[in-house]
Backbone:
């Protein structure tokens, strides 16, 4: 019998419980833990304690406020919390409630559960009084008051009523535990829709108590609805589990009497319950909460004697919020896709204002976080809302947008006038105390501060940039008090520089230990700040302008300042109305019983306004929203190191390859590393073929000079591939130059051999327009395209079909033809159809209607001819047709002879060019044509171990023409593979009728998505030699051996596409001429859990297309998403077709 090693068993068990696998850890020497915040968190203070000036608004001046609990019901937020006069576990004690419709504006606290008298004869067994722990005289009361403490606060019943729950315990001295199971009992109270409160009832009694010796009746005396709700609670083991601390020890109602504290839980996708306690203890329940697996610390989690909150979010992902240190700061958030493996750690709140009122067990920092328990409502915004206490004296809530984003996807371009309320600021992080509130007022974001101990703070997180341009407007309502500090920070919260409006009325910049003055400022005057920050040179260039009423600069002052702290990149701009806090430190004593001087005072009001915040990255690799360019540099380093750069004719040598790629190449990320590596390899090789000629940029097919090439070693046969691939290069100057060289590089005329080979250049030029939307470029070429098309008139049979020698189709040594046979081939006829359609579309776009009609007619004629003359009904395939026997003899005798096409005969062989009509969407959407695609999946047809063959494998003449002479009799050519896969993607996307299943016994249609993906996998796998990435001319279909061997001419052969197939096929971006974005990934369900295509330049905008099955890869949400310029434009939960209309308006 096999017995696995203990370490393996433990590892497997850890995987099936809550654990943290991320690498980010909090630094407790910093209040923010050196963590990067999630985007758009709003921290809002709801209660600020003030002992010196008691009022209803501050809870009557009581300064111990802790343990907040939240629910969302009847369209409102409900929160209650413990409140004691000064200290924890020091009576009297009560529970207060606040209500809010929006989570930002809260009602004044009202008493939910009042003080409760402990019976005079109450005793605790084994209690020994200690004089030094007795309550101070000020708290000595007769009768003694109970201590309130409850780990669960709300219950929304099936009948739709809201019950608040609380618990009365007893502490006989400062260190006596009111949660030792020797309390009084648990109570409930209905909160009604009109805001009124129902009677209080006991739902549970501790030992020694019952309805006869308690002040409130038993719940069984309540109304029918309340009784039913209480019975639901008592029947719910997950709810009762939260009573464990206050209940009698060994209480049978408690599912697991483990003594652990502060239980919370959530439901996993498979129905299991994941549970958490203090210290990040965790367990699972497989039966709805009745029993639990062994409780252990969550591996990887750092959490001390503080609470941790876990929750399943509205998008199906999971979050835990807790203090990720041995202190009660910072307040962090970790995210998970499956509820078990947590991978991230980011910031919710990194502020620790001074504790104004010390006391028993009062800890510093944001703590005791609790959200909305499952079943207790979902806010109308579907976001995550949590409550927490600060220093155990003030109450706060945090609004966390869902999906929870760990990265900013777009730079700032913020006009605050477009927002109606603070909650609309989804890209700004806000810290808003009651006495230092943040608010919106017309075009301004206002920061008001009259708090002597706290400040207002707002942050705008942006894509990390090394070279940043930022601008914003600022007004100050005063000049002789207050301070506005503006900082630029990296991901760890390190500020590299600080601009300040100080209380002396001066705008200044911090230079290390000193400041440099810029200019004085006046009250209510608008100042525009324009800053350029260069992290490489550690320099700030700042211009401050005084603006007139018309928004124009009246005067300006510029300065250059060195950074006071080096950073690699900037990811945040912070506006703060006070100095950065560093106290408490990790060495500050835990206990403090004092009161700060002037603790109840109000400061002189300072008011600042911010508007028109805008940032722009000046980095060479700017444009990505999610992926980081540097993460893919290792591929290029590996490619550069593979071999010496022997053939260097490129305008961009290997040493410059990465710099060129990071500026010009869309980024791609996926779980199959061979796909990812090949994607970057093919960009790396394409770049080798960009050459500088005397007439501008050109693109070669071979790096080795060829005798049959045109000037500059150009060959026309693969230019369609070059255009399709190069249209995704972000800087259009390269493709502009390549096309200009082909059409004007021969003394202002087209290249002499532009029609030496069949090609589909005009069609590809139109396809290029569908990507960049730049009609100027094709307009300058349209006359040349018209002339080029007419050059092919001498290659037509009398019936209108085009003929071509197979060698001039770039496909010599075929089964169907020969180097001197004038056959009507599906290839050239498809090309000419595509070219005609391309010219027609271009002409129509710029208003040349006559030219458009001319070419539409040509295309229509060709479509009919191909469908009727080149379709072999027996083979159900588009095939080469040959002149009749007599005319074939004439062709052999006289090369100038033009066949008529009469009585033409099929070559009776299926070849890969039979798929080419779909490359241009030529065939009608009919079942008879669709059947051709069965051959792509058939191992007797074109499907081989290393890809799609160029001729059907069943044919007697398959691979019969020898080896090494560029045969197209069956071997695999990437040239044809790219064409077939492009055609297949068109068929999948643009046709409704699909081929029947391959096996006659099978039902339904052929799984085209799986076929496409499988062939792409083969294509990826085939592009290697001796374990290294490689692209050559052609290869053996069964062994993968490159049939030109080590011939230098074949290395880096530029005769196919790959990146275009990833973009338009796998990722599924379907280029269009209009303002609509259409995406339809061709990835079988379950094959990939994620992918991202980022920094795609499309119609003048930056596109990001991503799929994240559970949201745990990119942390911007689940499902398939399209982002435009870093802003979400469209999404769906699953893979499939996603259409975003008017995406650029």
Residues:
């Amino acid at each position: 019998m096999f017995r696995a090693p203990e370490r393996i068993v433990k590892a497997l068990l850890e995987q099936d419980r809550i654990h943290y696998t991320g690498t980010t850890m909090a630094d407790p020497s910093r209040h923010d833990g050196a963590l990067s915040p999630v985007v758009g968190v709003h921290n809002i203070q709801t209660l600020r304690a003030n002992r010196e000036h008691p009022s209803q608004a501050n809870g009557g001046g009581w300064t111990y406020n802790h343990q907040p609990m939240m629910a969302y019901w009847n369209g409102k937020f409900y929160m209650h919390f413990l409140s004691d006069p000064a200290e924890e576990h020091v009576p009297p004690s009560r529970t207060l409630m606040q209500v809010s419709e929006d989570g930002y504006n809260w009602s004044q606290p009202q008493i939910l559960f009042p003080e409760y008298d402990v019976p005079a004869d109450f005793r605790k067994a084994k209690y020994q009084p200690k004089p030094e722990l007795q309550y101070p005289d000020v708290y000595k009361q007769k009768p003694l008051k109970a201590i309130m403490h409850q780990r669960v606060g709300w219950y929304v019943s099936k009948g739709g009523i809201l019950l608040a729950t609380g618990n009365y315990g007893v502490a006989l001295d400062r260190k006596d535990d009111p949660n030792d199971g020797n309390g009084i009992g648990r109570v409930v109270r209905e909160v009604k829709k009109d805001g009124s409160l129902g009677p209080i009832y006991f739902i549970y009694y501790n030992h020694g108590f019952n309805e006869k010796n308690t002040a409130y009746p038993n719940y069984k005396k309540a109304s029918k609805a309340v009784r039913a709700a209480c019975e639901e609670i008592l029947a719910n083991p997950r709810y009762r589990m939260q009573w464990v601390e206050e209940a009698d020890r060994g209480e049978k109602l408690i599912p697991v009497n483990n003594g652990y504290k502060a239980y919370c839980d959530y439901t996993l996708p498979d129905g299991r319950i994941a549970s958490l306690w203090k210290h990040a203890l965790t367990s699972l329940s497989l039966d709805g909460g009745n029993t639990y697996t062994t409780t252990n610390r969550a591996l990887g989690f750092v959490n001390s004697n503080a609470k941790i909150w876990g929750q399943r979010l509205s998008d199906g992902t999971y979050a835990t919020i807790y203090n990720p240190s041995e202190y009660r700061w910072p307040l962090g958030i970790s995210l998970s896709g499956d509820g078990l493996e947590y991978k991230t750690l980011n910031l919710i709140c990194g502020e620790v204002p001074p504790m104004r009122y010390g006391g028993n067990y009062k800890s510093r920092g944001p703590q005791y976080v609790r959200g909305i328990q499952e079943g207790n409502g979902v806010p109308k915004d579907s976001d995550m809302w949590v409550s927490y206490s600060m220093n155990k004296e003030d109450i706060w809530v945090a609004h966390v947008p869902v999906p929870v984003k760990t990265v900013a996807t777009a730079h700032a371009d913020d006009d605050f006038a477009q927002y109606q309320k603070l909650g609309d600021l989804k890209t700004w992080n806000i810290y808003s105390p009651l006495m230092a509130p943040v608010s919106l007022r017309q075009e301004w974001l206002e920061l008001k501060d009259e708090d002597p101990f706290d400040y207002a703070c707002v942050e705008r997180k942006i894509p990390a940039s090394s070279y940043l341009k930022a601008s914003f407007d600022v007004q100050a309502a005063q000049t002789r008090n207050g301070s506005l500090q503006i900082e630029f920070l990296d991901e760890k919260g390190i500020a590299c520089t600080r601009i300040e409006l100080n209380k002396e009325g001066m705008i200044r910049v911090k230079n290390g230990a000193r400041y440099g003055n810029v200019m004085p400022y006046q009250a209510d005057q608008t100042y525009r700040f324009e800053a350029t920050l260069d992290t490489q040179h550690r320099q700030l260039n700042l211009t401050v302008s005084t603006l007139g009423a018309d928004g124009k600069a009246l005067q300006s002052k510029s300065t250059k300042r060195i950074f006071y702290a080096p950073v690699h990149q900037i990811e945040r701009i912070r506006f703060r109305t006070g100095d950065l806090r560093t106290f408490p430190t990790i060495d500050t004593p835990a206990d403090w019983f004092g009161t700060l001087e002037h603790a109840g005072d109000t400061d002189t009001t300072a008011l600042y306004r911010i508007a028109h915040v805008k940032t722009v990255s000046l980095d060479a690799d700017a444009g990505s929203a999610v992926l980081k360019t540097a993460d893919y540099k290792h591929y290029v380093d590996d490619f550069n190191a593979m071999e010496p750069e022997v053939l260097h004719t490129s305008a961009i040598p290997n040493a410059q390859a990465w710099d060129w790629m990071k500026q010009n190449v869309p980024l791609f990320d996926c779980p199959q590393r061979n796909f990812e590596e090949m994607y970057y390899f093919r960009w790396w090789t394409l770049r080798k073929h960009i050459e500088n000629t005397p007439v501008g940029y050109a693109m070669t097919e071979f790096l080795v000079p060829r005798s049959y090439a045109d000037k500059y070693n150009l060959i026309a046969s693969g230019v369609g591939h070059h255009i399709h691939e190069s249209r995704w290069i972000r800087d259009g100057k390269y493709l502009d130059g390549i096309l200009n060289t082909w059409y004007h590089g021969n003394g202002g005329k087209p290249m002499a051999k532009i029609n030496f080979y069949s090609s589909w250049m005009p069609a590809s030029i139109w396809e290029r327009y569908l990507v960049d939307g730049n009609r100027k470029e094709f307009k300058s070429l349209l006359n040349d395209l018209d002339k080029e098309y007419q050059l092919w008139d001498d290659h037509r049979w009398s019936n209108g079909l085009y003929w071509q020698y197979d060698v001039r189709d770039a496909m010599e040594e075929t089964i169907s033809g020969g180097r001197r046979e004038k056959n009507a081939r599906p290839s050239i006829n498809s090309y000419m159809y595509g070219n005609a359609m391309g010219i027609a579309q271009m002409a129509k776009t710029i208003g040349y209607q006559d030219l458009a009609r001319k070419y539409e007619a040509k295309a229509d004629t060709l479509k009919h001819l191909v469908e009727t003359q080149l379709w072999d009904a027996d083979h159900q395939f588009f095939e080469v047709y040959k002149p009749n026997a007599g005319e074939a003899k004439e062709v052999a005798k006289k090369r100038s002879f033009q066949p008529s096409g009469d009585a033409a005969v099929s070559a009776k062989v299926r070849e890969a060019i039979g798929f080419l009509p779909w490359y241009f969407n030529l065939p009608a959407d009919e079942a008879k044509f669709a059947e051709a695609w069965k051959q792509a999946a058939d191992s007797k047809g074109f499907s081989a171990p290393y890809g799609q063959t160029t001729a059907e494998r069943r044919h007697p003449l398959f691979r019969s023409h020898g080896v090494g002479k560029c045969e197209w009799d069956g071997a695999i050519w990437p040239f044809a593979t790219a064409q077939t896969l492009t055609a297949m993607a068109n068929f999948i996307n643009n046709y409704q009728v699909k081929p029947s299943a391959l096996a006659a016994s099978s039902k339904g249609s052929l799984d085209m998505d799986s076929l496409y993906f499988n062939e792409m996998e083969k294509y990826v796998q085939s592009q290697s030699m001796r374990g290294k990435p490689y692209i050559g001319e052609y290869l053996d279909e069964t062994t993968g051996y490159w049939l030109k061997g080590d011939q230098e001419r074949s290395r880096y052969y530029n005769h196919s596409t790959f990146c275009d197939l990833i973009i338009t096929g796998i990722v599924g971006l379907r280029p269009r001429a209009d303002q609509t974005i259409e995406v339809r990934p061709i990835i079988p369900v379950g094959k990939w859990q994620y992918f991202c295509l980022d920094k795609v330049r499309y119609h003048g905008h930056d596109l990001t297309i991503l799929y994240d099955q559970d949201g745990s890869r990119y942390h911007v949400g689940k499902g398939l998403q399209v982002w435009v310029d870093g802003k979400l434009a469209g999404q769906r939960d699953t893979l499939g077709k996603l259409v975003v209309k008017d995406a650029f308006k």
